[in-house]
Amino acid sequence: MDIENLQIQIKTFFGLEQILAEEIKKLGGRKVEIKNRAVNCEGDLGFLYKINYSARTALKILVPIHQFKAFNQHQFYDRLFKFEWDEFMDVEQSFSIDATVNSETFKHSQFVTLKMKDAIVDYFQEKYKKRPNVETRNPDIKFHLHIDRELVMISMDSSGDALFKRGYRREQGEAPINEVLASGMLQLAGWDGKGNFLDPMCGSGTLLIEAAMIAMDLPAQIFRKRFGFQNWKNYDADLFSKIKEFRVNRVRQFDGKIVGYDIDARMLNAARMNVEAAEMEDVIEIRKQNFFDSKKDLFPLLMVFNPPYDERISINDDDFYKKIGDTFKTNYPNTLAWLISSDLEAVKKIGLRPSRKIKLFNGKLETRFLQYEMYEGTKKIHKLEDKS
């Protein structure tokens, strides 16, 4: 592995590729290239540590180590068996494999995963007369197998646990939003920590915490205890410590306000517990407040929220989205508001034309992330900037 010129693939959600690419460029990535749900780039070992620690819209960060073509299962096994696995792991280390397969030749991901496991175990058995353990829950080394027709790509997962697992969530609601998606939404909405932020239906507080982390420029993984690369044979602990120290020294003071409303006592309690776990009680304010009875009291204000929609949480009130629109128009003049929803029929009841529509996925649900601009006095109609 050439630690000065690593080929790196960073996975993300659909619709966040451009945001991730901009993050990677700011962090110093070379030859940044946008793919479907991913960004490819080059960087050294320190850069790999830095993006794992800091990138907000990365789900997992892979480093390819082996690529070949296989036209049948025998070729597949043989090429894997001949690969020098002991350059990348010790026989005492445990490993796991996850697979993505798009091939007529290799149709079943479980089968090819098993064949790859056999090849790795057989390699060590023949060379060292000892077998490494396969551990699915908490392995030392995670390999990623990607097969596209006959092309086989083996990568090492430098992240370990998926990077949306920030480490601050103690409680969650009925349909919590993924932390990576939340951060991506905030960046799409233009949140940079200047001004004030409101989530009027805050649930367990994920958008609030991610907004605070952006406002203070806190590294995305400041609460994480372990990364996959810390078990690699080339791990440089001193280098990682320096990168963390340098990054934490850039944390800035935030002078605005970040506020969350909710009417559910259980959700308010969950949000407060998560805010406390993130050590942000002094930055985030949580209020028991019905958004429909609220009025704008923060200037300037950006609003981003994840209201209930039918597939996630049942809504008994047919006029729920109409009330959102009425509250926007009556009580929040001169405000930029964004919301995410998969219920595109219900969204029409808001009664305002969105000035932007961005296609995103919340889990498996196809959604739209919608921007509304409220002006005092005259109504301004804007053309859609993003095709649905």
TrEMBL record:
Residue ranges annotated for the THUMP domain, each copy included: 47-158
Highest rank taxon of the organism: Bacteria
Keyword annotations: Methyltransferase, RNA-binding, Transferase
Classification via Pfam families: RlmL_1st, THUMP, UPF0020
GO MF annotation, one: rRNA (guanine-N7-)-methyltransferase activity
The UniProt record lists the keyword Methyltransferase: yes
Database matches in CDD domains: THUMP_AdoMetMT
SUPFAM superfamilies associated with the record: S-adenosyl-L-methionine-dependent methyltransferases
PROSITE patterns the record matches: N6_MTASE, THUMP, UPF0020
Coiled coil, from the record: none
PANTHER family: RIBOSOMAL RNA LARGE SUBUNIT METHYLTRANSFERASE K/L, RIBOSOMAL RNA LARGE SUBUNIT METHYLTRANSFERASE K_L
Name this polypeptide is given: Putative N6-adenine-specific DNA methylase
Originating organism: Chryseobacterium ureilyticum
